[in-house]
Design a protein that fits this description.
Elements lengths: L2 H30 L3 H37 L3 H29 L5 H16 L2
Length: 127
């Protein structure tokens, strides 16, 4: 091999080494970032939707009981207004549950949840 061929091979070898080293640095940098914040956001969103579900489901249940009492007391107008509030919170609760389930990666039982949403809508519209 003459001098030029050795120089070219050496230069190319150094270039490939530098490129490989750069790729290695990029690879290490990409995986050195902490994935915890992404997971924390996931947990926060999921927990938030589940808390919303629990809170609004409880409110909807209480409003339904209050509407039943008002109806027993003969106040149809008040019962209807309270029932519509129950419907609103029931719909919002179910929608939060659907979002939490989607975040969790499950797609099972959406038919039941849709049926529940429709039931809450019927409750609100029946007045």
């Amino acid at each position: 091999m003459d001098f030029i061929e050795r120089f070219l091979l050496q230069s190319l070898g150094e270039s490939f080494f530098k490129i490989g080293f750069c790729f290695l640095l990029i690879f290490l940098a990409a995986f050195s970032f902490d994935s915890q914040p992404i997971f924390a956001d996931f947990q926060k969103d999921f927990a938030g939707y589940m808390n919303d579900w629990n809170r609004k489901r409880d409110l909807a249940s209480r409003y339904l009981l209050d509407a039943e009492r008002a109806l027993k007391d003969g106040d149809d107008l008040l019962a209807c207004a309270i029932q519509q509030k129950a419907s609103k919170y029931g719909i919002e609760a179910t929608e939060s549950l659907i979002k939490a389930i989607k975040i969790n990666g499950s797609t099972d039982d959406f038919d039941n949840l849709e049926a529940g949403l429709n039931k809450w809508r019927e409750i609100g519209a029946s007045c």
